[in-house]
Design a protein that fits this description.
Length: about 375
């Protein structure tokens, strides 16, 4: 009885031999490539959601990033990105000997999660430039309803910094005495100051000057680092919400260039400072933010005459009340979803990463 020839080297018995060289076989996308594409699309959708809410005064893009579970990664990547840009600028001014000495140091850009940052940025810009025009039309044609809607959103969003300030207190350490009185006092004093400042007579904003646009861009981008504070709300408080929305919808490149210059300035300077303060004096910063939001609600009151607050109009208060409830309900749902996600993350994986500390634990609780 003749024995069967042994199978080819490396092929187990009973399996087909590999195809001969030159034979064609339809190529298939690897699971890794498919997963990478799916993650990119998902992050682009997340970016579109953040871009959408950044157009609305009252819902913070940082809050939505928290709800979506990407805020920690976003802050850490932004920290490394800004560090890399700053280091590249310094590296360009170094001598050749100094550059050779630092050639072996790992670049901060290697720590940036590009698979998150790039699709997120694309989604944000697409949402901003496609939805700005209809939102601008809504604000212009429905001033009372839009103001009431935004007022409800901002009022409900006060829960975000208040809850984060409470969570910033170390476990087993309850504030007492002056510390217990100090927290509400900070909120009340800051809120009163913001309320009074917004009541001062202001000049009508027709065509804002260049430096005002730059400063408004720097102020608005800082809201991204602080959950509960909306960049659009900052612009609305400064009286530049509608001009900026109009510039985006009409593609006013001169205005947008100045605004983006201010945003870059804010990212390089103020956001870095805010990130540091959130790590070192987290509770104090959150209490100040709560006071600012509370006092700035004055700017959203639907019935105003210049700087004077008016009583609700009899024919408009029902619709305004419904809009207020709808806006507050949306934010409360987002806030509740974030609390559930945080509780699930803490139960399953330990304490979540400190969102204000760029990957580093907080070192103090401020007030």
């Amino acid at each position: 009885m003749t024995s069967l020839p042994p199978p080819p080297h490396g092929s187990p018995p009973g399996t087909d031999s590999p195809p001969e060289r030159g034979s064609s076989r339809p190529s298939q996308a690897s699971p890794r490539d498919t997963g990478f594409l799916a993650k990119g699309i998902a992050n682009a959708v997340r970016g579109a959601l953040i871009g959408l809410v950044e157009l609305i005064p009252g819902v913070s893009g940082g809050t939505v990033a928290l709800v979506l579970g990407i805020y920690d990664r976003l802050i850490v990547s932004a920290h490394h990105l800004l560090h890399g840009i700053s280091r590249s600028v310094r590296h360009g001014t170094m001598t050749r000997r100094a550059r050779r000495a630092r050639s072996g140091v790992v670049s901060p850009f290697a720590s940036v999660e590009w698979s998150l940052i790039l699709p997120l940025a694309v989604g944000m810009f697409v949402a901003l430039f496609t939805l700005a025009r209809p939102l601008h039309t809504f604000v212009e044609t429905q001033p009372v309803i839009s103001s009431a809607l935004f007022l409800g959103m901002v009022t409900a969003s006060l829960l975000v910094p208040l809850t984060m300030a409470r969570d910033a207190v170390p476990p087993g350490r309850n504030p007492s005495g002056i510390a217990r009185i100090g927290a509400p006092a900070v909120v009340v004093v800051v809120a009163a100051a913001a309320f009074l400042l917004l009541g001062l007579p202001t000049l009508a904003v027709g065509q804002p000057s260049g430096w005002v646009i730059v400063l408004s861009g720097a102020a608005a981008v800082c809201a991204l680092a602080l959950p509960g504070l909306s960049g659009s709300f900052v612009l609305l408080t400064l009286g530049l919400y509608e001009p900026t929305l109009e510039a985006v919808s009409s593609r006013d490149m001169g205005y947008l260039a100045l605004f983006m210059a201010g945003a870059v300035l804010g990212l390089v300077s103020v956001v870095q400072l805010l990130t540091y303060l959130l790590r070192v004096h987290r509770r104090a910063v959150l209490l100040v933010a709560t006071g600012l939001i509370l006092g700035s609600l004055r700017a959203l009151w639907p019935w105003q005459d210049g700087s004077a607050l008016l009583a609700p109009h009899p024919d408009e208060w029902v619709g305004a009340l419904l809009a207020f409830a709808a806006g507050a309900g949306v934010v409360l749902l987002l806030w509740r979803a974030d609390r559930r996600r945080s509780a699930a993350g803490t139960a399953g994986h330990g304490a979540p990463l400190d969102p204000g500390g760029a990957g580093m634990p907080p070192r103090g609780d401020g007030v």
